Every structure is written in C-alpha cells, then in structure tokens.
C-alpha cells in the first residue's frame, strides 16, 4: 500500500535508529505532541530502542484527554433533558464527575454513536420534534467536519440541530508548555494530521521565539524515527528550524478549503483544557452569526462547573511533567475497565498506551 507499508518497513526503521545512536552525544528531551504518535512509539517498542540519552515526553495531543470534565457533564445533562446526543465512539466511556455518557445511555439517555457529524444533521431532520446535539470535540483536525455540519444544517433549514463544541488548537498548547517554568523540552515532533489541515506556518513564530526545533512528523514507525532523527540532528548541530518530515501529506499552506470552512463558523477564543485549565486563544468558539447552533447557548448549560478528579494526574501527564506509570493509580485503581481519567480510556491516551502495549513501561 503506497505511503503506508513502506513506512512500516523494519529494515528502514532500524537504519534510522542506528543513525540516531551515531549522532546522539547529549541528553535531549523531545515531546511528541500527538497521542497517535505516543501510541506509535509505545506500540512499536521505539521508546526502548532509542539511545538512553533521548527521552520522549508525551504531549497533550489527545482530544478526548483534554476535553474538560465540565463538558462531559454538560453532554450528560442534555441527555437527561431528553436531547438526542450524538458523539464519536471515543468519548462515550470517558468519566464525567458522576458517570460517563455510556452509563447515562444505560439509564435511558438517547445517545447515538456516529462516524460523522453530518449523520447527526440527518437524525435531526428525521426527528423534528426532538433537539439533536453533536458532541463536537477535537483539535484542528475534526473542526472542518463539525463546521460543515452547521453549514449543512443551515442550508437544509434544520433548526433543531446544534453542536456542543470543544475544539482546541495545538500551537497555543505548545506555547503554554514552553512557558511552564518546569519545562525541559528541547524539541517537538509536530502533529502531522493537524498540519495537513492548518499547514506549517503557524509554527514558525514558536521556533523563532523559543529557539526550538519543531519537526512535523507522521505516525508510522519510520515516520517517527525520521522525525526524532531530524530533531536530534538540529539539536546536536545547535540549530533550530521548522522541518516537515510528513511532506507526503502536509503542504505548507495546509488545506485551504478546510480552513475556509472552519473560519466561517468558528473564531479563536479561550478554551479550558482538562487538567490544565484555561489557555487564552487556545481553541475555537462558535461565531455570533451561528450562535443558534451553539448548544451551550441554546440550552443554558454554561453554569455546570465541576472539579477534576483529585486522584488523576492527567494534567501533569498532558504537560509532559510526568509519565503515566508515575501516577499512583496507574494499573491499580485506574485501568481501561475502570478509568479514573480520560488518558486511560482514550484510544490516543498516554496511560492507555502504556497499559496496553508495554509491560516494561508498567514496571
Ligand atoms: S493512570 Fe488513570 S488516574 Fe493516573 S493519570 Fe492516567 S488516567 Fe489519570
């Protein structure tokens, strides 16, 4: 399969790993932003094959993990009010303050698990006497489809459809991490799929302000080791620049059509990140002109505000300050069958990656 099997080639991956060992002379901390990259590193055993001096730090790029507890409670409140709530499958087992969406469904809530928000608009058309809300969560990658669903509802005259939106953005999160006084990160692997939408240019100011290498990187084993190699090469040579390892997918300008759809519906605003708190200008909020499609405004649920689980250190893990196996609950009271926090249940969560794929990392 073009662009996939060749990036899973063992020999090619080993060769790059050998090169990494040859060029590494100093200790380097590299953060992979995306949870998909974390899973790729752990699942393929790459963490154990890197030089001891290279430490990968797992970043906040798991959309399910960073969605605040408040928002899950808001979605559950809507279910309990009789609203049809539609969601991607990865959100439904994430714990809210009292229960998950799946538990609310078991108690009678009308929760629909969908692959696309456009399906939710169809459900709204088929149920004109009910309100339908799509739980629109994610980074820049899912924003175009969610924005498109609003445009589709408008075009079709569907007034009983809205979205409960929590879209967060990668560059402000990187800046918040770099501004943390405990930050030890020397370089970043940028999230390839986010850049496929947004392009690469919004990372240039970060490179220049913090004098830090950023390598836009893909998700297959060869992508990951190439990204790490490029980052270490820059660090060892005392350079800092933006590089694009994932050029087979990521273009400098991004996907202009997708960006235009996002900008029609959303504007930049402050967003809360689970376990981290509010970060200014770190997400998308629905523009005033499309406020009637904003479920938070439509159903007056903004008052819901609950504290995070005090036993879950997801915030520290998402900021790269701790590894999952440094959490006291890891593998004991917190397991995929009984998650205390989103990183243990999300398919991109760092805790789930450690739990499922690496016995060595659990010890
Ligand atoms: S192991 Fe569980 S409790 Fe600990 S940080 Fe991960 S999700 Fe939270």
Automatic annotation (TrEMBL):
GO terms for molecular function: 4 iron, 4 sulfur cluster binding; carbon monoxide binding; iron ion binding. It comes from Lutibacter oceani. Belongs to the HypD family. This is Hydrogenase expression/formation protein HypD. GO terms for biological process: protein maturation. InterPro entries: Hyd_form_HypD, HypD_1, HypD_2_sf. It comes from the Bacteria. Keywords: Iron, Metal-binding. The keyword Iron applies. Pfam families: HypD.
